[in-house]
Amino acid sequence: MIAVEKALEQYGAPIYVRHEIVHNKYVVQTLEKKGAIFVDVTAEVPEGSIVMFSAHGVAPTVHAEAAERKLATIDATCPLVTKVHKEAVRYAKEDYDILLIGHEGHEEVIGTSGEAPDHIQLVDGPEDVANIEVRDESKVVWLSQTTLSVDETMETVGALKSKFPNLLSPPSDDICYATQNRQIAVKKLSEDAELVIVVGSKNSSNSIRMVEVALDAGADAAYLVDFASEIDEAWLEGVSTVGLTSGASVPDVLVDGVIEWLAERGYEDVETVKTADESITFSLPKELRRDLRAEAAALSAE
User: Fold this and answer.
1) pLDDT digits 0-9 by tens, 121-147
2) Is 108 annotated in the active site?
3) CB-count exposure of residue 155 (10 Å: 0-12, 13-18, 19+)
4) Active site residue: 107, 108, 115, 152, which one?
């Protein structure tokens, strides 16, 4: 969200964004009001315009399409997704069969697969494993979409290792740290809460996973909402403790809105469940940093 806002300040509207910058309805609507235009394909961007690639990443073919249309590009791909892309390229060069654990059709999966289409097979859960065939069982590696459930991913990895004993794991965990931390926290919440509310959008993979994690961890009920107004008061019947969490890209204002809504209905005591410290911050896209530095240097020289 910050990258799009800074781009609008720096270059003015419109800024075209290929796919939603993050999967959150509020964020997208807020940016549209400021002058961002979200498109599904590069061909929708007028020649010579500025286009930003979303946090989910894009395939090399998309960069080529943008160059053909003479578009100025800003690559806002999440660094954790970029890491998976680089791993895919490296293992493809070493001629591995790459088994990409993820959900078919998700933008991140499409982008990663595009880095090495001849080497990557999608594995959409443990049930897909039986159909997987590889060229050489001694040269197989798994990678994953960054927003999956950790438990779901490891279940799929276990099934793959049973079929391919020499399966290589990536050098570090591909699941986003923010996704992991939230899944650990929602497990803790679900030990005591009869109801868990997850603030997030229905096209957000990591938000959907948290609802599933909450139910698996023992919550009697768990629901996904974009806004406090979507909560059904009937969910509160017989509930003494409500667990509240949010997707990785959800603004605090939406969570605060749910806290206020619950307080108005008698749930005034708030206890924070802390399972991890998050101190990692990511820089703005390099193209945007470059132009901001150039502008600052020009102003200082005046």
Assistant:
1) 999 999 999 999 999 999 999 999 988
2) yes
3) middle
4) 108
